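Why do we bother with a discrete structure alphabet at all? Because it lets us treat a fold like text: something you can write down, compare, and reason about line by line. To make this less abstract, here is a complete entry for Putative pre-16S rRNA nuclease. Read it the way you would read a sentence in a foreign language you are learning: slowly, and without expecting to understand everything at once.
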Amino acid sequence: MPILNLTDLAAACPPGTPWMGLDLGEKTIGVAVSDTSRMIASPLELVRKSKFTAEAETLFRLMDGRKISALIIGLPMNMDGTEGPRAQSCRAFARNLDRLRPTSVAFWDERLSTSAVERFLIDELDLSRKRRAGVVDRTAAAWILQGALDRVRDQETWV
């Protein structure tokens, strides 16, 4: 699994194939997917964390079913731009996934993504705490993926 920057990732993926975004939480993995044109990210599923191999099998099943060509994994950076233990855990997750099946991966700085999503769910949709709990991680995954898709599209227009 090559870890690529977004520009190289876009060039390495076949056209017309969607990407998958992951928000790796402590108890769950939020999953989002893009459309085949890689314009819009949509929340897909919430995977409960258990054993790594079970999580990986679920992700591979989702990837195969949608013909996913790459993963965008949220990287929880510290506010000063350094990587802490959670970011290192995300990198380890990607390495472990690669041991089972090589997949093209890029990381996306997810600082404040969960906070932004929670604010949106409260302010715009007026969701209760209970309703937010079931939606926030997969919506955060869509937020992460959309940020990466927008960056790739912005870079393509400036080249």
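What the structure line is telling us, in plain words: DSSP finds six helices and five strands in the chain. The chain has a mean pLDDT of 86.
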